[in-house]
Amino acid sequence: RMETDCNPMELPNNTGFEEDSDYGDFEGTDVKDMRLEAEAVVNDVLFAVSNMFVSKTLPCAEDVAYINVETRERNRYCLELTEAGLRVVAYDFDQTDDRLQTPYHETVYSLLDSLSPAYREVFGNALLQRLEALKKESQS
């Protein structure tokens, strides 16, 4: 994404942009803030891991955030979150290792499922309990 120091309201009227064109509000309205996205990811699966939090050391930006996770097996990872998905970038908190060429996962569930059998079990049990609760609700 191109950054600009120019306020769009200061552009001269002869730029060729029409008032009702798609450029009227291009200031990042459809770009996700990855820090907010990372917080949502953490809140989603925190119950199924030992520890998980957005890194305060590594830089977050509009297009990238880093999440530290410790699985129930006590393995630590630093995850990178981008539009491409999530991937492991180091085997410790607040680190990145450029030599690591780990695959991207579309979801945090898929990533944790591949890293942690205990996560899989806890998440599966929570899912079953939720289904049981829904079943009881629908029967009453």
From TrEMBL:
**Cross-referenced Gene3D superfamilies:** Hypothetical protein (hspc210)
- Which Pfam family name is an example for this entry? GSKIP_dom
| Region Disordered: start-end pairs | 1-23
Task: From the UniProt record, give one GO term of the biological process aspect.
Answer: regulation of canonical Wnt signaling pathway
Residues in GSKIP domain copies: 34-134
Which molecular function term from Gene Ontology is one that the record holds? kinase regulator activity
| Annotated Gene Ontology cellular component terms | cytoplasm
Q: Give the family this protein belongs to, as stated in its UniProt record.
A: Belongs to the GSKIP family.
Which PANTHER family has this protein been placed in? GSK3B-INTERACTING PROTEIN
- Stated name of the protein: GSKIP protein
